[in-house]
């Protein structure tokens, strides 16, 4: 038997044990945004470091950053073989709304073919699958390829310390290719490879009017209501074609050529699927693009939250003193979050009325990225997926963001292969997040095939 076959066999023999162990990882509530969970985040980091050590990975470290730690490890004994940097994140999103979970988010539960837990699809399941793939290979002898592990604990808060970490450890992170496991496929039958991600620029816009809340009967019609002024400003941020009106917003956006449009058109997701996955009564968006194009290849602006005035039970006749909106833009490759910040300020300088004052605070930013679909490492990933799923992958652009991909391109000049196994129906960030177990087990096999496949390529 070849090393590949025996590693695959080993993974199959251990499916039950893997499932049990994954559940222990998922039980650690490593919510990066909540200060109260800092000890849990650190626990998850140590748990991963122990996993790496138990697999005979060298120089395993839990490295401090200005925020949550980064787990690092390496295996560099495959002389003459490429170095693959494996990326993952062990932090998760908050679990609320808690009362909508059928079983508690940090008590992982199998129902049918699904494993339910916060973070199971985004992305503890994937990084765990990768570790088990490495473990299965390592049980057969020396690993066929050199590996470095970069597993962070701040992805879900925008990776605020990752840029400086990469700057400080350039040599340590030097590699030939990056395997990013934080990705998904279209359906259990139709694998896909993500070759682009959107960036994110996230802001708070606060509008202030009178110095305190006023009686709306005594003062309504005398001063500009900040809630109304805010809504007017927000409404002006799109035109009637669904385009964003911030000055210069589309200047750096690459046109989708016919060739790429044809590639994206191979994604079989229909408008009916989008309707079903969202539950919305109708679709909406920028004119002239399909839903799949709008979400992957076009930048967008969303209001993520609105706070103003009286929102309790019953009625209160109040004219609020202030109003706040959380606004974020999803950016595509070549756009940059600092430019977009300036564009937002320019829009407000031009359009904000004299009747209010305003302030913008930037909360999170990360750039988008696009990769060459024909890169050798991406072909290896495509072959691995086809061998395991029995179908060739289609290529897709991901609408979500993972800041590390652009950071590694910009700072180290290395491209990333996105290879992961969540589904559009996994409910990431929402209640009852789940991972389809057949995809999890096929994921382990795909990673085994990817790592053995890439070993044949020249560094
Ligand atoms: N795992 C997601 C990104 C993703 C979504 C990959 C779907 C593949 C399929 C990632 O953890 C995420 O949620 N990113 C945040 C980033 C933000 C906080 C900077 C996002 O996109 O909102
Ligand atoms: Mn996420």
Shape: globular
Shape-level CATH architecture of the largest domain = 3-Layer(aba) Sandwich
The CATH superfamily of the largest domain turns out to be: Zn peptidases
> Counting H and I runs of at least 4 residues, what is the number of helices?
15
The multimeric state of the shown protein is single chain
What is the CATH top level name of the largest domain? Alpha Beta
* Number of separate domains: 2
The CATH topology of the largest domain corresponds to Aminopeptidase
Give the rounded overall mean pLDDT: 97
Q: Give the uncertain stretches in residue-range form.
A: none
How would you describe this structure to a colleague?
The protein has helices at residues 3-13, 15-26, 38-54, 120-138, 162-168, 170-173, 216-219, 226-235, 258-264, 271-278, 291-297, 337-351, 376-389, 403-412, 437-454; strands at residues 58-63, 70-75, 83-89, 109-111, 114-116, 146-152, 177-180, 192-197, 199-208, 214-215, 300-308, 318-319, 322-331, 357-366, 369-370, 394-398, 416-418, 434-436. It is an alpha+beta fold and 459 residues long. A 6-stranded mixed β-sheet has the order 1-2-6-3-7-17, with helices on both faces. Strands 11-13-9-14 form a 4-stranded antiparallel β-sheet. Strands 4-5-18 form a 3-stranded antiparallel β-sheet. The longest helix is centred in the N-terminal third of the chain and has 19 residues, at 120-138. The chain is globular and about 85 Å long. The model has no long low-confidence stretch (mean pLDDT 97). It binds ligand BES and manganese (II) ion. Ligand BES binds at residues 122-123, 155-156, 158, 182-184, 200, 364, 366, 398, 400-403, 422.
């Amino acid at each position: 038997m070849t090393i590949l076959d025996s590693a695959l066999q080993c993974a199959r023999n251990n499916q039950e044990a893997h499932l049990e162990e994954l559940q222990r990882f998922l039980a650690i509530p490593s919510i990066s945004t909540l200060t109260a969970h800092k000890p849990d985040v650190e626990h998850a980091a140590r748990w991963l470091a122990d996993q790496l050590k138990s697999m005979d990975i060298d120089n395993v470290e839990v490295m401090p950053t200005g925020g949550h730690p980064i787990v690092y490890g390496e295996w560099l004994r495959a002389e003459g073989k490429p170095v693959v940097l494996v990326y993952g994140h062990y932090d998760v999103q908050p679990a609320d709304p808690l009362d909508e979970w059928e079983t508690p988010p940090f008590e992982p539960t199998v129902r049918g073919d699904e494993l339910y837990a916060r973070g199971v699809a985004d992305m503890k399941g994937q990084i765990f699958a990768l570790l088990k793939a490495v473990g299965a290979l390592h049980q057969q002898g020396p690993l066929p390829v050199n590996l470095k592990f970069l597993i962070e604990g701040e992805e879900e808060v925008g990776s605020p310390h990752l840029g400086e970490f990469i700057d400080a450890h350039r040599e340590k992170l030097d590699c030939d290719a990056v395997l990013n496991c934080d990705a998904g496929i279209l359906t259990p039958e139709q694998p896909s490879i993500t070759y682009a991600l959107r960036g994110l620029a996230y802001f708070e816009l606060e509008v202030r009017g009178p110095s305190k809340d006023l009686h709306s009967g005594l003062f309504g019609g005398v001063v500009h209501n900040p809630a109304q002024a805010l809504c007017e400003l927000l409404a002006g941020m799109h035109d009637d074609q669904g385009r964003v009106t911030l000055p210069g917003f589309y200047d750096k956006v690459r046109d989708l050529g016919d060739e790429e449009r044809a590639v994206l058109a191979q994604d079989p997701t229909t408008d009916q699927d989008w309707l079903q996955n969202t539950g919305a009564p109708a679709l909406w968006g920028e004119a002239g693009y399909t839903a799949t194009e709008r979400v992957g290849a076009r930048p967008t602006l969303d209001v993520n939250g609105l706070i103003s005035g009286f929102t309790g039970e019953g009625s209160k006749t109040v004219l609020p003193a202030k109003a706040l909106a959380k606004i974020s833009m999803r950016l595509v490759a070549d756009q940059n979050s600092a430019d977009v910040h300036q564009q937002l300020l320019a829009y407000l300088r031009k359009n904000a009325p004299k009747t209010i004052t305003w302030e913008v605070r930037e909360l999170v930013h990360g750039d988008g990225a696009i990769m060459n679909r024909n890169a050798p490492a991406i072909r290896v990933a495509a072959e691995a997926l086809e061998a395991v799923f029995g179908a060739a992958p289609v290529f897709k652009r991901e609408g979500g963001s993972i800041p590390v991909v652009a950071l590694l391109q910009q700072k180290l000049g290395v491209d990333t292969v996105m290879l992961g196994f969540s589904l559009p129906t996994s409910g990431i960030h929402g209640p009852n997040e789940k991972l389809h177990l057949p995809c999890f087990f096929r994921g382990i096999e795909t990673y085994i095939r990817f790592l053995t496949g890439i070993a044949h390529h020249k560094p």
